[in-house]
Design a protein that fits this description.
single chain, 365 residues, alpha/beta
């Protein structure tokens, strides 16, 4: 599995430019006017991981298959979106389908690029979007709770649980806090996720700065960093313009360009890594002469569940997982040497897969 990240923000903050760069397509029209994105654009990219290339080189793999990440470019929201202003609720619905929100904030000054509010204040922009999402959630909660009354009177336990959780979310939102601030017991975790509230989505603030500020940010991105830290959220500093230029270059040219800009890596790499951390994701590998492949799992995933990411039959008929740590595979020079050195382990159903594990699953058909 990969994960789906919705790119949101006010109009003209650089969402579509960033989307175009990250997916290396021109599928999203980037233009200097509000609502240039009429339908949510969806793009998939391979997740860059130097470990995969190294494993493939050692194993002589003919094909390299990275795990995938999906970006959804969602049209610009404006104040009043929860009540249908701008392009309204259809875009709020698109956010529900994502795993996380990349909230792009304008942290650059440019008189040639208009701002829908007539000023550049990324913290205020963030508050505008957060408010609209909370208002949309509040309206949804009130309607859903009203619809549960009859079932609760009929002693429907699921309905009672839903109403209790919705009440917790409602109380938080009425207190000016997003639903993700509510602490949920493990027994309620699945039902809580099924509510699909907009403000339960993890948020990654993307500070879009000018080209000269991509390495260290600026005063505006510093304010976003303070806000994110206070909320317990994450942030990254990216120049969408730089990412757009990099997307047009071959790998060697891109590296030279990054060096000239004083950047160690492309914004895509930072964004994906921050997204992985935000969603507590990890990567394991399957390696052989035919292909070297990366697979994404949630942190804490058991070996059978990890096998199920490849195919459901692998999980159902799971016997054991032959496991080599990435460092051992690379240091010793492959599966054979690692096995001879006693570094290949046979792990059962209780094993929790670690980030970087090289796995081979044995299963009954």
């Amino acid at each position: 599995m990969g994960f789906k990240m919705g790119i949101v923000g006010l109009p003209n903050v650089g969402k579509s430019t960033l989307f175009n760069a990250l997916t290396k397509t021109a599928a999203a029209q980037a233009a200097n006017f509000p609502f240039c994105t009429i339908e949510p654009n969806v793009g998939e990219v391979g997740v860059p991981d130097a470990r995969l290339d190294r494993l493939a080189a050692i194993a002589g793999s003919k094909q390299i298959i990275p795990t995938r990440m999906t970006f959804v470019d969602i049209a610009g929201l404006v104040k009043g979106a929860s009540k249908g202003e701008g392009l309204g609720n259809q875009f709020l619905a698109n956010i529900r389908e994502t795993d996380a929100i990349a909230h792009v904030l304008r942290c650059f000054q440019d008189g040639d690029v208009t701002h829908v509010e007539g000023r550049v204040d990324p913290v205020a922009d963030a508050e505008t979007i957060d408010t609209e999402l909370m208002l949309a959630d509040l309206e949804s909660i009130e309607k859903r709770r009203a619809g549960l009354v009859r079932k609760i009177k009929g002693n429907d336990k699921d309905a009672a649980q839903q109403d209790r959780l919705l009440a917790l979310a409602q109380a938080a939102i009425e207190d000016g806090k997003p639903a993700r601030t509510v602490k949920i017991d493990e027994d309620d975790a699945k039902a809580w996720r099924m509510l699909q509230l907009l403000t339960t989505k993890p948020v990654l603030y993307v500070c879009n700065v000018g080209e000269d500020e991509a390495a260290d940010g600026n005063a505006l991105s510093d304010k976003v960093a303070e806000m994110a830290a206070a909320q317990g959220n994450s942030h990254v500093v990216i120049s969408a313009q730089i990412e757009e230029e990099i997307s047009k270059l071959d790998p060697d040219e891109a590296k030279m360009f990054l060096d000239e800009m004083g950047l160690k890596e492309a914004g895509l790499d930072r964004l994906i890594r921050a997204g992985y951390e935000l969603l507590h994701l990890e990567t394991y590998f399957t390696v052989g002469p035919k292909e070297a492949r990366a697979w994404t799992i949630k942190s804490g995933t058991s070996a059978p569940k990890a096998a199920g990411v490849i195919h459901g039959d692998f999980e159902k008929g799971f016997i054991r997982a032959e496991t080599i740590a990435y460092d051992d595979f690379v240091t010793l020079g492959g599966e054979g040497p690692a096995k001879e050195a006693g570094k290949m382990r046979s792990e059962g159903k209780a094993y929790t897969v670690k980030d970087g594990d090289v796995l081979h699953f044995l299963f009954n058909t």
